[in-house]
Amino acid sequence: MARGPPPPPPAGGGGSAPPPPRPPARAGGGPPPAAAFPAWRDTPISKRAAILFRAAQLLEDRADSVARELTREEGKGLALARDEVLRSAQTIRFYAVEGQSFTGETFVNDDPDMVVYSQREPLGVVTVISPWNFPISIPARKIAPALITGNTVVFKPSSDAPLTGYRLTEAFVEAGLPPGVLNFVTGPASKVGQAITTAAAVRAISFTGSTAAGEQIHRGAGLTTRTQMELGGKNPLIVLADADLDRAVELAVKGGFSLSGQACTGTSRLLVDRKVLAAFTDKLLARMRKLTIGNGLEGNFDLGPLATRKQLDTVLSYIALGKQEATHLIGGERLDGPGFERGYYVTPALFTDVTQQMRIAREEIFGPVLALIAVDGYDEAIACANDTEYGLSAAIATSDARYAHRFARDIQAGTVKINRTTTGNLINAPFGGLKSSSTSTFRESGRVGLEFYTQIKTVYRAG
Ligand code: NAD
């Protein structure tokens, strides 16, 4: 593994850069992933699983130190970072177990002398490309199913958070992964990206990131290269007139501002019934005034810094746009005074009088910015919620069971939440978007997450 150079020092979200990592156990050695594939494919499944179990344990043992690095690199609070590391270990264990019973079917047929069955086989070399916002849990949920099913992997983390991905790779290598099976590659997407997505040996690409980059990679992939693209979102929370408003406010705050709004499933549009708009807005403003913001290494704050300078510029530009398009209620200030010198801090922002035609209601901002849109009743709320190119996650706050059922049917989103935040998903349940939020070819996460990494042969055997 680790056929590329060690990763560069990380770009800080929340603090100063940690020292460069130690070289991994097998740095610089090993065959190319295509050459490593046959031996890994033929390694008994119990041995592959044992390596995954060991990698999970190593990550758990190192959860505190990896979490600290993650916070320094990406900016989310220490508790969230630790959860992410532990969740990644859980994900690896989940696939170590599920992968051992993931197999084909047998088929009844008229010939008593013939057995017909399907078998699942690995694809070969799989490219995994991940974003910075979940720098360990997203690669873990791609790499673990790829490895347990017998594929070899080329893994490129985001250049904005490479160290955490490196720690994940290191755990797999130290757990006993043979050389060439997991290959950690860093470098600019413009140079490295093309090589690892268009090489003839690459049989599949699992990508999570922006819709623009995903579309480009998807179009550039060859006929025999399978793609799984998990992309952007513009996720709504509908608040009906019958909703418990205090609870709805908590859903808005947690969905919109945890991770400083930098979650693909983060809430960005609040579609609120006009009958309760004033009351909801008052409660939300009161709640927002109590939110805390600071360095996640120094305390337990509601929001941390934005991850990169680019993120800061993007978020501030949308806040400026929102002030022209709509009515600005609170927040959106850049904090750079005492205590905030070493990070890209922006206070959580709220706009009202927003319409679905405005850019702040249509484009993914990926920051702590919420847009309030007034709607008259359920039907208008659904029409408005669905009036977007995206379809990643959507939530409704209601106490009426009829609307809860209708919402699950009517909403165009891959993740549907009823009286829950748009954010968050189980590791054992399928995850993915609809419309431009995903290629919708294969789902990630859960048992179905194994399907992407295998192909099916049907065998007819007589005698
Ligand atoms: P990004 O698209 O800029 O980068 C994602 C990854 O792709 C990085 O590793 C980057 O280096 C690489 N990349 C970019 N262009 C490439 C190319 N042409 N060829 C190969 N690799 C390329 O996204 P980001 O800023 O890192 O992450 C934020 C985006 O990710 C948001 O749009 C967010 O919604 C999305 N996201 C989606 C999910 C999901 O599950 N749907 C989860 C997290 C983040």
Structural notes for this entry:
It is a single chain. The chain has about 475 residues and is of the alpha/beta class. Helices cover about 35% and strands about 20% of the residues. The protein contains 14 helices and 19 strands. It has helices spanning about 35-40, 45-60, 65-75, 80-100, 135-150, 160-175, 190-200, 210-220, 245-255, 275-290, 310-325, 360, 375-385, 400-410, and strands spanning about 105, 115-120, 125-130, 150-155, 180-185, 200-210, 225-230, 235-240, 265-275, 325-330, 335, 345, 350, 370-375, 390, 395, 415-420, 435, 455-460. Strands 10-13-14-9-8-16-17 form a seven-stranded mixed sheet, sandwiched between helices. Strands 5-4-3-6-7 form a five-stranded parallel sheet, with helices on both faces. It has a three-stranded antiparallel sheet with strand order 1-2-19, with no helix packed on it. Strand 16 (about 395), helix 14 and strand 17 form a beta-alpha-beta unit. The two termini are about 45 Å apart. The model is unreliable at about 1-25 (pLDDT under 50). The structure holds nicotinamide-adenine-dinucleotide. Nicotinamide-adenine-dinucleotide binds near residues 189, 208, 209, 210 and 217.
